[in-house]
Structure formats: C-alpha cells, structure tokens
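Risk register update: the risk of archive-format incompatibility is retired. Evidence:
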Amino acid sequence: MKLFIQIPCLNEEQTLPAVLETIPTEIDGVDEIEILVIDDGSTDRTVEVAKAHGVRHFVRHTTNMGLARSFRDGVDYALLHGADIVVNTDGDNQYPQAQIAELVQPILHEQADIVIGDRQTRTIEHFSGFKKLMQRFGSWVASRAAGLDLPDAASGFRAYSKYSLVRLNIVTRFSYCMETIVQAGYKRLAIASVPITTNAKTRESRLFKNIWQHMFQSGSAIARVYLMYRPMALFAWVAVVLGALGLWPLVRYLVLIVSGSTGNHLQSIILGVVLLITALLSLVIGVVADLTRMNRTLAEEQLDLQKLARYGD
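Archived output:
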C-alpha cells in the first residue's frame, strides 16, 4: 500500500518546513509514504527548501495554474508512480499533518473512497462569525447538491483512494473541492468525514481575494457541476415555477371574465402565455441537457478505462 502526500505550493518557503517536519513517516497499514510538492509557479525558494528536507517528487508549473490544475497534475503524477492513496494537504501549514494517519484509516479499512478532514469551523478562532456562518451554509448547499451530509465541504485536507481518483474528472479552474463532492455524490462514491484541528493562521489565502469572491466561485462551481450531472432536476424545477407563475394570470383572467369585469385584460393573457412558453422551453432544454449528460456518462466510462490502462488496475 503506497501513500502519496501531495502539497500544492505557491511561494511557501517560510511555512513549508513546518509542514514537511510534521508529516508522519510511518502509518499502520501503509508500506510506503512519498511526499510530492507541486510548485505552482513559485518565485521563491520553495523547491530548494523541499529538496533540503528530502523531498524527491516534484511537479512544476512555470506559471501559476491554480489549485484545481495543481491537484489534477499532482494526482496524475502520484498515480503514475504507483499511489494507492493520495492525501492532499496545503503548504501554508493550515492542516495538522500528524492527523494524516487518522485521515486515511477509513480508506485502509475499505469504509470510504474519499475522506474529508472536518475542521470544525465553528471552533476556529481566526474565523469571523460571518465566515463561520457562510462556511456552514456553503457545506449545506454542497451537501444538498451531492445528496450527502458533509460538515465541512470546503476543507482541502482530504484522502482519496485510487479508485475514486480514476472516477473523478476535474474540469473547473478555481478549486476542486466542491466539484469533486458533487461528482462523488452522483457517482455513488463513499465519503467519510474525520474531525481534525487546525493550526494557527500563517497568512491570508492566495486562492481568493475576499470571502465574497470565494462564495461566488464556490457557488458557480457547484451550480456548474450540478448542471452537468443533474440537469433535468434543475430545469424541471424551473419549468414548474414558471408554469405556476404562468397559470396565475390566466386563472385571474378567467375569474374576471366569469365575474363580468369590464376590460379585455390582455396583459394577463400575454404574461401567462409568455411564462408558459418559457416553462415549456425549460423542459425542452432540460431534455437536451439530460441527453448530453448521458453522452458525458458514456464518455467518462471510456475515460475511466483509459485511466486504468494508464495507471494500472
């Protein structure tokens, strides 16, 4: 059983030593532990620091490609080098590396395909009240979209089995966190959560400028992936709402006619017809999108076979 611990880095020479020094060297049930540093366009001594601490595996981007691409490239490297489990942590030392042993246990015991470290955000001191509220709300939205119950969907401290990584396909550019959750729910991958602590804050996030950008990007990722994998459910709801709104002015028109009200009330007829036509168009778009989803499912099954050929069974 080979475990790869991948660390996406962007100018992390100050905090990377603390990360590397606290990664466990032995874990029960794991035969080999390898560390992979993904240099996402760093301009400082990140790579030199990693080499000085004994890191032998690197993926290097000549320019900043973003967290999602770093994750995808790191996973590709790890699987090509025989990884059975991949743990993703961070170069800013936010996560407790010592708890990696706990993080991988559900996978080792075949209880889960993906394990997410639950930061218990309500207890994090440097999170504002508003940020804690938004973290809970974001986790609730992601959980509903995936059909799961996850306390900390935004946590990047995760363990993935090889099987889950073959099944998952990253297409967004901002962050893989929300996308993989919705995909995992659709593909019936087992997800578990493990309570973890967090280390003291070392710097501001480089992934987003403020919480509003984070909320917008995360929400967009959830909506995009949900639309990819459950389009009919979304467009059906839109059609139902528009249909109900379209019936209301038509019913109002009939009531006015029956009651003998004067006037032709053309506004009600036009509004009702427009809304009903829009509802019908939503259904048609939903059917077309669902057919596209079926084609995507077939294409992803072929991609899974290609990945198995690339990475081995």
